[in-house]
Design brief:
This protein is an all-beta fold. The chain has one domain: Sandwich (Jelly Rolls), CATH 2.60.120. It is built from no helices and 13 strands. Strands 1, 2, 3, 4, 6, 10, 12 and 13 form an eight-stranded antiparallel β-sheet that branches. A hairpin with a 5-residue loop joins β2 and β3. The relative contact order is 0.31.
Length: about 220
């Protein structure tokens, strides 16, 4: 006789976007975006978060315009935090999808960009490195005013890592330039809109034909009775 699997507490099978019963994991989608909040001192702070709900991000694309570029220069860095409100066990392959791009409105050749993605566990003031990886290059040696963009996907294998209440899983996205030293006015961008809207800027590093959503798939261990 086949015995039914019973799930306990937060780990209900209906809590997940996908399920891998053979692996005993439930996969949940988290969306990266920018939001602002007021502190006790009435200061407005902008922060990047990972949320299991879609929302209208304060920014569709996080951009930075470089006056004069250098080769292999760190253009911008973004920390996206997922804070846990209950104990969860991450177990399996975390998939990270990040749109990266750039555009050189004045035209120019030998311009490229790439990114590095890093996962860390943050407990209080202690940060523990998990894994990192680097994307391929996108760009061209030809002179063009077109945008170059790619929705990069990277996989990180995590084995039964426990996150307690108030612990944070942090994804850091770093975008770099390569080539084109001395070029001016290049606009670099990271897509950060859970609603996948088109950018409203005139010069778009993430064009309308590309997704602007940053999505992270996290596999959680299913607790069974």
């Amino acid at each position: 006789m086949v015995q039914p699997i019973k799930f306990s507490g937060r780990e209900s099978i209906t809590s997940y976007d996908f399920n891998d019963l053979a692996a005993g994991t439930g996969i949940q989608l988290f969306y990266g975006g920018i939001h602002a909040y007021r502190t006790v001192g009435n200061l407005i702070i902008s922060a990047a978060v990972l949320s299991d709900n879609t929302f209208y991000s304060d920014e569709i694309v996080r951009t930075k315009i470089i006056a004069t570029s250098l080769s292999n220069e760190l253009i911008q860095s973004l920390d996206l935090n997922l804070k846990f409100n209950t104990t969860r066990i991450v177990n399996g392959n975390i998939l990270v999808n990040v749109p990266l791009g750039f555009i050189h409105p004045a035209g120019g050749g030998n311009n490229f960009t790439f990114g590095t993605f890093s996962l860390n566990k943050v407990v209080g003031s202690t940060t523990t490195f998990i894994q990192s990886g680097m994307t391929s290059l996108i760009g061209s040696t030809s002179t063009t005013t077109s945008a170059y963009v790619n929705n990069f996907c990277m996989s990180f294998t995590v084995s039964a890592m426990t996150f307690s209440k108030d612990d944070t899983l942090r994804l850091t996205v770093d975008q770099y330039s390569q080539g084109g030293a001395g070029a001016s006015g290049i606009v670099y961008g990271i897509g950060v809109d859970p609603m996948n809207r088109n950018d409203t800027a005139t010069n778009k590093p993430i064009p309308d034909t590309s997704d602007s959503s940053l999505i992270v798939q996290v596999p959680f261990k299913l607790e069974v009775d």
